[in-house]
Amino acid sequence: MIISEQKKVVRSPEDIATIMRSILAAESEIDRMKEHLWAVGLNNKNVIQYVELTSLGTLISTVLGPREVFRLAIHKAIANILVCHNHPSGDPEPSMEDRTITQRLVAAGEILGIKVLDHIIIGDPTYCSFKERGFIK
Q1: Which ranges constitute the DSSP H helices of the chain?
Q2: Class for domain 1-58+65-86+101-123, per CATH?
Q3: pTM of the predicted model, to two decimals?
Q4: Residue 82 pLDDT exceeds 90
Q5: SS3 of 79, please?
Q6: Hey, where are the domains in the chain?
Q7: Strands of 127-129's sheet in order across
Q8: Per-residue b/e over 91-128, b at no fewer than 16 CB within 10 Å?
């Protein structure tokens, strides 16, 4: 899904959190209570090329793997991606599982030549950026 005809430039994790909150707000009330994981493809100037929902989970978890996250990036020859997911609880603090899967995605991206720039967890009303926390270098 392209979010608009005029593609958006990402300048900060807050930009992504704002965009993803608006996408989540368009979901039904029932679906907003589930974890969503999106892959956001960016060009070299950090302009969004696509936003893809790669996993829709339950209230407390979602299943994902590198195959789903990188599928469209490979198809579209994307250089950089962001990963974003929501915590329906509203608390954006990353779990150990969040940190582990992020490390796997960064490693897979290195093999594929696709840089994972950040993993952002959106809560209500805050967010957590793995890049800002130093979890992604």
Answers
A1: 13-25, 29-32, 66-75, 96-112, 130-133
A2: alpha beta
A3: 0.90
A4: yes
A5: coil
A6: 1-58+65-86+101-123
A7: 48-56, 36-42, 80-86, 115-122, 127-129
A8: ebebeeebeebbeebbebbeeeebebbbbbbbbeeebb
